[in-house]
Specification:
The model is unreliable at 150-162 (pLDDT under 50). β1, α1 (11-23) and β2 (28-31) form a beta-alpha-beta unit. The protein contains 7 helices and 4 strands, in the order βαβαββααααα. 55% of the residues lie in helices and 9% in strands. The longest helix is centred in the middle third of the chain and has 31 residues, at 87-117.
């Protein structure tokens, strides 16, 4: 059975978990304790040389990036409502997946890590950067501009992947 290395704090892991739970794809979960540094261990280095969560293993396939895991699962299980086969529709989904990974993810990390986990020791300038991020501020505007032109069935699912 495929194994998903996880920790609930990881927004990247939660993307994959959401797809798997929503679609019923069977999986086994292996919890990696980020709070104790298990992801930095020599054992986990053999699983993921980047020391990151998630990692997905399916027989001879090992994938370390959440969006690649999503794409793999959708293609393997024929989830064309989630990840369309048609090129233009798939490109729209890919664009949003990449945008959330590259733009929204870092801004979210700055705010969440420095408020929820670091508490009073949190970096106030990082929090401000996350709140003021052009990615965060523009998220709503970009989605409203893009979605009216792309009202096909797949777009209703696109936002569910991130």
């Amino acid at each position: 059975m495929p194994i998903l290395y996880s920790h609930p704090i990881s927004q990247h892991y939660r993307r994959v978990l959401a797809l798997r739970e929503e679609t019923g794809i069977p999986h086994e979960t292996c919890h990696i304790s980020l709070d104790t540094g298990e992801h930095m261990s020599s054992d986990y280095l053999l699983v993921n040389p980047n020391h990151q969560i998630p990692t997905f293993m399916d027989n001879d396939v090992t994938i370390h990036e959440s969006n690649t895991i999503l794409r793999y699962l959708c293609q393997k299980h024929g989830l064309t409502d989630w990840y369309p086969a048609e090129l233009v529709a798939r490109t729209a989904v890919d664009q949003w997946l990449d945008w959330t990974q590259c733009r929204l993810g870092p801004a979210t990390f700055f705010v969440v890590f420095n408020t929820v986990f670091a508490g009073d020791r949190g970096d106030k300038s990082a929090i401000a950067l996350g709140h003021d991020s052009s990615a965060r501020k523009s998220a709503y505007r970009l989605r409203r501009r893009a979605l009216p032109q792309q009202r096909t069935h797949h777009m209703a699912h696109c936002h569910r992947l991130f």
